Amino acid sequence: MSLTIGSPAPAFSLPATDGREIGLAALEGRKIVLYFYPKDDTSGCTLEAQAFQSLKKDFAAADTEIVGVSPDSLKSHDKFRAKYRLDFALASDEETRMLQNYGVWVEKSMYGRKYMGVERTTVLIDRDGTIARVWNKVKVEGHAEEVLTAAKALP
Q1: What range(s) does the Thioredoxin domain occupy (predicted)?
Q2: 54 vs 104: CA distance, rounded Å
Q3: Fewer CB atoms near the end CB (10 Å): N or C, the chain?
Q4: Which helix (H) or strand (E) holds 66?
Q5: What is the pLDDT of residue 110?
Q6: How far apart are CA 5 and CA 91, in angstroms?
């Protein structure tokens, strides 16, 4: 499934850090940055998380919630958050249902071996739950800044 700008974001409800459940309905009325990443505590994923963390106050000023999503467990997320002092939600989709609904659970290949994994993707959702912007195959450098600019431009 590919996400279409202007279409409703697929509903979700996932366990998240801080012992809470996080979902589209609970965040309604706020802008949401969903960033999908492959694995906690790997180099690219750490740099991406740190970039979003460094801009968290700016996202909050733009009334935008940051939510990281990966198939890692909550225990893994908690360690990752503590190690890098991340204070935004990380949601766990161990069953990959949401990842599949958002079209980011894809076949990948490394050294000729095929496997399923997360394609680094970011989705900006407006206050009405509509997809405002999608970044596929994200390159980490400068990405969080670009997402912040887009979030600020939304009413």
Answers
A1: 3-155
A2: 25
A3: C
A4: strand 64-70
A5: 85
A6: 23
In-domain check, residue 144 = yes
Active site residues: 45
Q: Confidence band (pLDDT; 50, 70, 90) for 1?
A: low
Residue 72 lies in domain? 13-153
Task: Please report whether residue 25 resides in a domain.
Answer: yes
Q: How many residues does the chain have?
A: 155
Number of domains in the chain: 1
Burial 59-97 (b: 16+ CB within 10 A, else e): beebebbbbbbbbbebebbbebbeeeebebbbbbbeeee
User: Can you tell me the distance from the alpha carbon of 60 to that of 58, in angstroms, rounded to the nearest whole number?
Assistant: 5
Residues paired with 122 in a beta bridge? 35, 135
pTM value is 0.94
DSSP secondary structure string for all residues of 98-127: HHHHTT-EEEEEETTEEEEEE--EEEEE-T
Chain position carrying tokens 């750490």: 46
Task: List beta partners, residue 41.
Answer: none
Q: What is the pLDDT of residues 28-79, one digit of tens each?
A: 899 999 999 999 999 999 999 999 999 999 999 999 999 999 999 999 999 9
